[in-house]
Amino acid sequence: MAYRWKNTLSSQDVTPEAAFLSRRTLIGAALAGLGLAGAGLPADAESLTPNTWEDITRYNNYYEFGTDKGDPARNARMLTVAPWTVRIDGLVDRPGDYAFDEIMRVMTIEERIYRFRCVEAWSMVVPWNGFELADLLALAGVQPGAKYVAFETVLRADEMPGVRYRVLDWPYVEGLRLDEARHPLTIMATGIYGRDIPAQNGAPLRLVVPWKYGFKSIKSVVRITLTDKEPPTSWNKANAREYGFYSNVNPEVDHPRWSQATERQIGGGLFSPRKPTLMFNGYGDEVAGLYAGMDLVKNF
Ligand code: MTE
């Protein structure tokens, strides 16, 4: 990608959205002029219009802070996000507790404007800042026997009012196949619109896998474990019939209780038409090869 961005902004240092967008346009034009596309980015990435800061930070799913869409924005400010460490363990050469600040010092921060599609059939477009998960895994040194990556969200009952309800079996856990985790589209997001990522969106770092339903994009990650077995995942544990391990966005595989053929675009207004859902959320050219020969109905 074109530029490095350091996560040193404070809340007094907010980039007005309009300025941010025009800067993006300039970067996009510069890249086009050089005949370069962003590495690993779909061709139309520059033409996606991101949702507003308000859409992205006030309509959330983060059940540790409550199950209403407005609960995370109200309650997640209780979460202490600094200092923060991520334990990386399992089948790695250099297991240990990695300080978030140290991770940020060595990673290349890029902007990725991605479609984001929730399993509940709503969608947004989010301008994330973050780094490729593959780079973090390389830092820890993945051993040859590793086949999957397991992720865990922080669990703090005193800061997370939602965890007294057993909606899910806490802590929230997720998993990817190693090749999915290493795919260049898979990032750990640390910002939105060039600002530090707000707590309700998963501060200080959360997974983003844009071709999968949003629940795979686990927030506020404190542990990453390389393993040779498919790891358990929170929604699959809660209801295996409704939520599979893969959870690739697929308009042809309906949720047992609703259709996935179309989606409601957040911020589109009351009368905006539903949009057809795209296979792999529009990232098929990049990721379909990961699933060649697989039955995507069985492996939903
Ligand atoms: N991560 C944790 N720890 N807890 C959650 O409840 N919700 C998931 C995912 N990651 C969730 C989570 C779901 S269902 C979605 S759609 C996205 O986060 C929402 O991300 P957003 O609030 O940034 O849009």
Describe this structure in words.
This protein is α+β, with helices and mostly antiparallel strands. The protein has one domain: Sulfite Oxidase, Chain A, domain 2. The protein is 19% helix and 21% strand. It is built from eight helices and twelve strands. A hairpin with a 2-residue loop joins strand 7 and strand 8. The longest helix has 17 residues. The structure holds ligand MTE. The site of ligand MTE has 14 residues, from loops.
List key phrases describing it.
300 residues, 8 helices
* CATH architecture identity: Alpha-Beta Complex
Query: What's the SSE pattern?
Result: HHHEEHEEHEEHEEEEHEEH
Oligomeric form: single chain
Largest sheet: 7 strands, mixed
Enumerate the distinct ligands: ligand MTE
Give the end-to-end Cα distance, rounded to a whole number of Å: 32 Å
Helix % is: 10-25%
Question: Unreliable segments (pLDDT under 50, ≥5 consecutive)?
Answer: 1-16, 21-40
Q: Number of domains in the coordinates?
A: 1
Radius of gyration: 18 Å
**Beta-strand content estimate:** 15-25%
- CATH topology, what is it called? Sulfite Oxidase, Chain A, domain 2
- Please give the CATH class: Alpha Beta
The whole-number mean of residue pLDDT values reads 89
CATH superfamily: Oxidoreductase, molybdopterin-binding domain
The number of helical elements comes to 8
How does the helix and strand content classify structurally? alpha+beta
Task: Give the number of DSSP strands.
Answer: 12
Gross morphology is globular
